[in-house]
Amino acid sequence: MLVVAIDPPVREEKDRRIDILVRGVDEYVSGYKIGIPFLLKHGKQGIRRLRRLTEKPIIADLKLADIGDIMSTTVKHLANTGVNAVIAHAFVGYNGALETLMKTSMVTGIGIILVASMSHEGSREFIDKHIDEFLDLAVKAEVEGIVTPATRPNVIRYARERLGGSIKIYSPGIGIQGAEPGSALCAGADYEIVGRLITGSKNPGEAAREVREIQLKRWSKCHG
Ligand code: BMP
Asked: What is the pTM of this model?
């Protein structure tokens, strides 16, 4: 239900050692999302280190948006790091892009999660205008999951209605971006992605425990 986004800041003094962070939050979380900041700072070695620290799934949020062969090469680079899934953009389309990526996903066992909508306002400018096509594409490509924003629960509700239960929904936008823990789960998401609310807290373990508690309270209210 809770995926922690680890996006280490550039400035060292604001940084938190990954092992301390993971030790604090691991019992409360379903998985971790790392992205380009993590990869630039810690490299593939860092992913392997994270793998040794936790048995929970690791999602590499690279927001791939390239021709199929290059997206596939990127995923193959991650094949022995312990990454379980990679996030890709949907707007690159199927032919020559996601079709190829899905074949590599089958070979490597690394799942693909597609961005169907984003949490910032600008998502309405282009991306959200194509949500129906992106959801159809997610079904056609048989991806593991999609990203829809906690900041716009109506988009999550819409995606859940259209997709049924087979594709997992990951929702960022909780905390610093404004949405309340549990609100995306109530709208139909499977996982809430939470970053700075937890990683920027003085006590990330306690922050993760609190987020879980609020999630469960809200969940039991909306499904009770
Ligand atoms: P935070 O909870 O600190 O705002 O972090 C949210 C995380 O989710 C970040 O890693 C960001 O890259 C990611 N994300 C997002 O915020 N909105 C999206 O639409 C898609 C994302 O992957």
From this structure: 0.97
